[in-house]
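Retro notes, item 3 of 5
We never archived the inputs for the zinc ion complex last cycle. Fixing that now. Sequence and ligand:
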Amino acid sequence: MTKASSSQARRLNGGMRRVDLKDVQLGSNDIGRKINRDIVLQLIRTAQPLSRADLARLSGLQRSTVSEIADQLLGEGWICEGPNLRTARGRHPIMLSLNDALAILAVDIHPGQAVVAMVDLNGRILTSSTLPVGKDPARAAKSIVSSLKRLRDSFPNKSLEGIGVSVPGRISAKTQRLVFAPNLGWRDFDLKHAIEEEMGLTAEVENAANSSLISELWFGRMDGVRNAALITVSEGVGAGILANGALVRGHDGAAGEFGHIPLAASEQLCGCGQVGCWETVASNSAAVRYYAELAPASSGLTFQELLNLFVEGDPNATKALEKQARFLGKGLRMLAYAFSPEVVLVAGAMVSIWEKIAPIIEKELSNPALPGIPPRLQPTYEGGIARLRGAAATLLQRHSGEHADRRVSVPRRLA
Ligand SMILES: [Zn+2]
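Structure as it came back at the time:
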């Protein structure tokens, strides 16, 4: 494994039980320090409040190492010292917790609208708002910045670590420049710097499916999982792949465009200019189109309205969503054959009817049986906001890991 991919695996894995030491290059004190730091931070996040002695016992690290890391995390504002606890023997260990005053601004961009939110270090959405965005990325960036400034000003007591942005498109791995976002109608735009220059905070831009996957690893229930596929189902279908513990990015971040692989004998034109792409038959837009074919008077229906009709028992809504689910399952077979994931995750509004829709996806995915152990199919944690929480997770993951020394601006800290 290369140095870059092993460090990426470590960044993704983050937690103590997720670190696979055989992937770590020996002889690098720097990598070792960062792994230990990730372990301590994840332990505090998942089991806070903890004393330094608790951390040493739970991590297996030496007490002096734990103290050194704790001091560093305190100095950077990630954690804070809480009330001292009185023990049976009368000692008063100082407890450590995540710094509630530290927060992240998160942005999730969709065609036509974006959601901006204030998110805490545990992935809780403190507040959010929605704004319209159009086909011009520079104007959209200005609107997003205005909303972010309002959000920042409404939380004067929060210290901001930075801004995470989820985009339904491909991002250059080197520059984070947006390369290709057919459903937004955006191409070749430097969203990262457009936001950073106005906000004076670091922005980290990531493909929406990748960020959702990072969110599952950071906030979710993926301990020990090293092979997973995640699809975001909205106006299009995005895919993120975790293979052997590392995100698959391909040459300059272009990997994962499964939504644009022609899958169906369909003449439906895709936003990318081709016909018959997977997303033209499996996206939420496809489900709305299926419904309109069955009920022509229903023009202008949103996907959420279609879900509501489904819940009310509308037979055409049922047919439309079941057809979408069958095409999702067919496309997921492609991912399952290609990567043999342990888990297949689905993110998006359809997760709200998961119990009804999952058996249909499962049937297409696993019948006829796949070679090897079949993947577990599951919704992302709070699927409807996976992308938004993913934006925050991307920022956290990069700032607590190897990118910590690459900040372009100094975040506001508590005095
Ligand atoms: Zn396409």
